Design the sequence.
């Protein structure tokens, strides 16, 4: 799979590259680099649409968020070179936001569609994985060697309350329904990430000359391990 970065991965991997390249990045441990890049603390729109479906007992909930904005208020990345040009990555993001969440609900014979406004409460996400980077005239080609399948985000909305009410009504017929678990699953939603093995381009236009010089030096150092 070779493509330009989809929006959600662009946010994650562009942060990784530019944080790594940022001048003045602090050293946390031998060979590792910890940095932040203030320009990337900003608002991102429509990062992802489909969310991980919720399936609990006889209940299935298909979730989407077609409209949302996410503000990155703070970030820090730790990158440590491994053997063979692989970098181990830990990215910490402090986020907040708002938007809309839609749900197609199937509980037994009941089918319904719900839609509610949502708030992404201020929280910190930690994403860990491994990447390799190939420098070309176009920019930096990143191959994801190891990625989590999803990341969990806590939201506030009336969707959980609505689902709990519907679930309690159906529980009179379907005694195996776990209404509390269903409500919790649409409060701690899971946003899918692309599978490992994909190759993505971050173009030179996404970096400055100073950032490229710093990042290229780090790549050379990492390739010597």
Sequence:
């Amino acid at each position: 799979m070779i493509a330009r970065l989809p929006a959600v991965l662009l946010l994650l991997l562009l942060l990784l590259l530019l944080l790594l390249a940022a001048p003045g990045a602090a050293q946390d441990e031998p060979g590792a680099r910890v940095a932040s890049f203030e320009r990337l603390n900003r608002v991102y729109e429509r990062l992802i649409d489909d969310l991980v479906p919720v399936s609990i007992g006889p209940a299935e909930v298909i979730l989407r968020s077609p409209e949302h904005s996410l503000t990155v208020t703070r970030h820090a990345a730790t990158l440590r070179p491994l053997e063979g040009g692989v970098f181990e990555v830990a990215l910490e993001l402090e986020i907040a936001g708002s938007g809309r969440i839609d749900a197609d609900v199937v509980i037994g014979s009941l089918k319904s569609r719900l839609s509610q406004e949502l708030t992404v409460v201020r929280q910190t996400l930690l994403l860990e994985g491994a990447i390799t980077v190939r420098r070309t005239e176009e920019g930096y080609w990143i191959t994801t060697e190891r990625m989590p399948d999803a990341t969990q985000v806590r939201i506030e909305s009336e969707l959980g309350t609505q689902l709990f009410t519907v679930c309690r009504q159906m529980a009179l017929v379907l005694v195996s329904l776990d209404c509390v678990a269903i409500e919790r699953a649409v409060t701690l939603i899971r946003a899918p990430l692309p599978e490992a093995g994909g190759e993505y381009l971050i173009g030179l236009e996404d970096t400055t000359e100073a950032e490229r010089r710093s990042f290229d030096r780090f790549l050379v150092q990492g390739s010597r391990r």
